[in-house]
Amino acid sequence: MARRFRFRPPGLKPTTKVGTLGPYRGRLGLAWVIAPIVAGATVWAAGPWLPELFPHLVGAVAEASISPVRRDAIYFDAPNMGVGEIPTWIDEGLGVWGIPDDEGHGVKVGPEFDAGHFDPSDWPDEATPDSVARARACAVRFPRLRTASIKETRACQHERTKSGHYVLDRHPENASIWIAGGGSGHGYKQGPVVGELMARDALERR
Fold first, then answer.
1. Best label site of 11, 26, 33, 184, fewest CB within 10 Å?
2. Residues 116, 157: contact at Cβ < 8 Å?
3. With contact defined as beta carbons under 8 Å apart, do 39 and 21 qualify?
């Protein structure tokens, strides 16, 4: 989804700051370029940008800090390694996991280590050489990966927390504001349930 936003309509550029967060008529609203946007209850689920919006709650020095980190993924063009031909695997010894090729996207291999911190607004496109080398190490289990060409690599955003758990709570100074973040790589799987939970709480407990 984030990659699709590269194809922005004319007038909206990556460096355009369209709004700022601040108080508005007793509530916390988004000061849009045209007019403020306010609501009776708001759930802020801004991913790795949450620390910028709420630095005193989830910033670097906060108890519930959220740190944007990158986890790389490498997609190999390897024959006979599709769905139904090989399993999904996790190799804790090598520190990698993998998913079979699905509909020609490539065999996905993810090194299980953080590849550095970064500014989420300056998102890198490709995996680091260290990540590619770790992915190639899977050839111990799957020899075809030793020489397979790479279809593409990606740098994925993770929101790392100290505990590895979500940050899901009401704003301590504004009962109409809720914060949801810190998925630590699992948000895409559990997002629908977390969204339903936060929406119900925001509507019923505002």
1. 11
2. no
3. no
State the Cα–Cα distance between residues 8 and 124, nearest whole angstrom.
Answer: 18
Sequence length of the chain is 206
CB 187 within 8 A of CB 194: yes
Low-confidence ranges of the chain (pLDDT < 50): 1-2, 5-19, 24, 26
Starting at the edge strand found earlier in the chain, the sheet holding 27-32 runs 19-24, 27-32, 36-37
Angle CA 22–162–187, to nearest 5: 70
* pLDDT tens digits along 56-75: 999 988 989 998 888 899 99
Distance of alpha carbon 197 from alpha carbon 192, whole angstroms: 9
List for the chain the helix, strand, coil content (%; round to 5): 25, 35, 40
Residue 72's H or E segment, with its range, is strand 66-77
pLDDT at 9: 47
Q: What would the two tokens of residue 109 be?
A: 């291999």
